[in-house]
Amino acid sequence: MRVAIVDDEELARMVLREMLRREPGVEIAAECANGFEAVRAVHELALDVMLLDIQMPKLDGFEVLELLQAGGAGTAPAVVFVTAHDEYALRAFEVHAVDYLLKPFTAERLHTALARARERRSPDARALAASAHPGPVERIVVRDGPKVTIIPIAKLDYAEAQDDYVALATEGKKHLKQQTIASLEASLDPRQFVRIHRSYLARVDRIVRIEPAGSDSQIAILHSGERLPVSRNGAVRLKQVLG
């Protein structure tokens, strides 16, 4: 079984390395110090299992899974999350992780996780569900070929639906992500983002004013000067949020 260790702390990688060396039938195929290296390893190596830390700079463990799904990683490895934080356990299993190891753990506990990974090496068990979030996301990961852009939610002005994609407007630029506007809406805080039109999702505090645009519609003027359509239902939603 080919295993990749993904953790930004050298000491944590060393502990896992020593434990894995005592596991029969296990080969350490890669060691990654960040999420970007992990994504590259999956694309370049035939991995069976990924021991994945959650809290890492630039890309966290859940964002690694999202990138693997968006990038078409082919046969994805089974994922065992390895973390010092217990608050992510529910979310980890929502994205179909094989197991959740809470640091510090014993070699016996790691052995059990690897045994579960062997049992779960099937297409259904390897399913990656990056859209499963128990609460509002804090940033959005956009992949364009080898380029990866991370958009903090605090800097997202609005999103525009374009078939099965959304154009994410931030800091004067737009980034295209393969995602429906409905699923994006479900992942955001409804107190901060409102579906003002069937094709537009806007951050409330970016709206400067609302102007009439005909008998049944209005226009939202953003702080950037951009003008977005507001439908009748969108106006009702805005009113509910703004009180």
Compile the SSE list and pairings.
Layout: E1 2-6, H1 10-21, E2 27-32, H2 35-44, E3 49-52, H3 61-70, E4 78-83, H4 89-94, E5 99-102, H5 107-119, E6 139-144, E7 147-152, E8 158-162, E9 165-170, E10 173-178, H6 181-187, E11 193-197, E12 200-203, E13 207-212, E14 218-222, E15 227-230, H7 232-242
Parallel strand pairs: 1-2, 1-3, 3-4, 4-5
Antiparallel strand pairs: 6-7, 8-9, 8-12, 9-10, 11-12, 13-14, 14-15
Any overview of this molecule?
With 243 residues, the protein is α/β, with parallel strands linked by helices. It is built from seven helices and 15 strands. It has helices at residues 10-21, 35-44, 61-70, 89-94, 107-119, 181-187, 232-242; strands at residues 2-6, 27-32, 49-52, 78-83, 99-102, 139-144, 147-152, 158-162, 165-170, 173-178, 193-197, 200-203, 207-212, 218-222, 227-230. A hairpin with a 4-residue loop joins β14 and β15 (227-230). α2 (35-44) runs parallel beside α3. It is elongated and about 75 Å long. The chain starts with a strand and ends with a helix.
**Main beta-sheet annotation:** 5 strands, parallel
* Gross geometry: elongated
What is the H/E order?
EHEHEHEHEHEEEEEHEEEEEH
**Would you report the number of β strands?**
15
Total DSSP helices:
7
